[in-house]
Amino acid sequence: MNNISLLQSISGLLAGIALIVILTARYRIHAFFALLLAGLLAGLIFQLPLTDILTTIKTGFGQIIGSLGLLIILGTTLGLILEHTGSTTVLAAYVLRQTGTGRSPLALNIIGYIVGMPIFCDSGFIVLSGLNKALAWRSGVSMVIMASSLATGLYAVHCMMPPHPGITAATGVIQADVGRVMLFGLLIALPASFCGYAWSLYAGRCLPVITPGTMETDATPEALPSVWMAVLPIAVPILLIALRSVFTLEQNSSSPLLQILNLTGTPEIAITIGIVLALPGLRKGQGEGFGKILQEGAEKAAGILVIIGGGGAFGAILAKAGIGAHIADNPAITGTGILLPFLVTAILKTAQGSSTVAIITAASIIHPLLPALGLHTPNGSLLCVLAMGAGSMMVSHTNDAYFWAISRFSGLEVKDMLRVYTIATLIMGIVAMCCVFLLSLLLL
């Protein structure tokens, strides 16, 4: 591994982010090319050979596409079918009847918090993006408020609660109790999620109102599906993924039922089942055929995928900087207790984009330091994992695939995402860490 100084690491990170913002917001350069140029600039600041920069960019691009590509294509297709059948319009009207227009962002935040318990934030946002757009359209609330409210609800539990992979892996590395991490993580995610919503509401109101122009539907009013039929294509995939998450925590996988749940609960399979459940509504549609919707879904997903792939490439370059290792190797800060796991994870998250990678990497760095930090007891291990979960929330920005999923599926500009959603994740991480600190006063 090359020797990259802390100054180089920070300089490359800041220069890359600044270049992305300037190119996308000022000069309207497509985000994919802005991300590639930012990765190249950061690599040059890190003094990496050009061949290494190219290899790292290709690897990062390929890994993100490989992990999210099929999911995004299928999720986009499901969303289009729900739009064309009028299902999202039906659901939006139902939610507004229950909550009222003024509380629709809070309703989406709560929905995100609940849905996010069993499934990845990426999957949850993609599945609910059609409902999000329909609610924004019918309520007149700005899309940036609605999207950020939903995204922060999903994100809070993704970072703080097993069975999500990052915090689950960290729980194993640190050897904390899974049940206690799940319980306290769920509780801490609640105020973090609400604060994310509160900031989204405040900051979004300071921006021009952005709502979808029209919602595409081929169904006549009398042919719209019932609420029950409209919710099935969304609820069934979420339920299947939830059951898979719960039962895969158990080691016994020999049962045929568990094997079926393991297969059908895979996000790609679950969303495919959602597509099948949504198909009967197309019989009531007028105009658009199924083949044309599939083509539109593939074309729309392609534009999203190249940007997410660019984010993966940029993140892979930043991961070369090893910022977290620079912090952990400094003996002057190893006496900071639960603050160190939080800081290392937050720096790794900000540098390379993935909450999962950040918390897993931080766990391997922090584990040998537990005795020195005074966190080698059962309660100390619990607090360490929760502190890393809080750190993995901040800061989600242009090198995070979830950031681009929110932006592209909601049609939001980068500058608005940074002002609303990115700052929301910063606040969420700080709030979650404050909750962990208060908990430490009781447990340590």
From TrEMBL:
Family annotation (Pfam families): GntP_permease
GO molecular function, one term: gluconate transmembrane transporter activity
InterPro entries reported for this sequence: Glcn_transporter
Entry keywords, A to Z: Membrane, Transmembrane, Transmembrane helix
Entry's Gene Ontology cellular component terms: plasma membrane
Regions crossing the membrane: 6-25, 32-50, 70-94, 106-129, 135-157, 178-199, 227-247, 259-281, 301-319, 380-398, 418-443
Domain of life: Bacteria
Protein name per UniProt: GntP family permease
Native source organism of the sequence: Chitinophaga varians
